[in-house]
Design a protein that fits this description.
two-stranded antiparallel ribbon; single chain; globular
Length: 151
């Protein structure tokens, strides 16, 4: 089976999710008052962005340490944040709405970002944690993907 090599595939995936967010902004005003707003679409964006984050984080970890076999985001954190020390302080500016996020700040404390915990909760028990498919978590997950794709 032939492999498909596209060095921009993750960036294009980010751009598609960014377009989804932009479309969503027609229905939900992106402002601090609405950060806890949740919906099926925001939940979908959180899920898609976080799944892609995991793929990119594992690839980045393998690039930094070719001998590694990171099995989860904790393993990726040790490798990636250990190599790219500024990653946990990365800032994402949502220019059109004048909002600022630090999607990898949780890695600074050696834990997981809140949006990542929301993703795992929604993935495993959506019927209980559906409210975590919030605007805040969707924005931070897409921002987190952007940061990793740039690295």
């Amino acid at each position: 089976m032939a492999t498909h090599h596209d060095p921009l595939v993750h960036w294009r995936y980010f751009l598609a999710l960014d377009e989804d967010l932009e479309r969503t902004s027609r229905y939900v005003e992106f402002c601090n008052d609405n950060l806890e707003c949740y919906s099926l679409e925001l939940c979908r964006i959180l899920m898609m962005a976080s799944a892609e984050v995991e793929v990119v984080a594992k690839q980045l970890a393998k690039t930094v340490d070719p001998a590694s076999e990171p099995r989860n985001m904790g393993a990726c954190r040790e490798i990636v944040a250990g190599h790219f020390r500024s990653l946990p302080t990365a800032t994402v500016h949502a220019v059109n709405v004048q909002m600022t996020f630090h999607p990898w700040a949780g890695w600074r404390e050696g834990s997981r970002p809140e949006w990542w915990q929301a993703y795992t909760d929604v993935k495993h028990a959506r019927h209980i944690h559906f409210r975590q498919g919030s605007l805040r978590n969707a924005l931070e997950a897409v921002g987190g993907l952007m940061v990793l794709a740039v690295y």
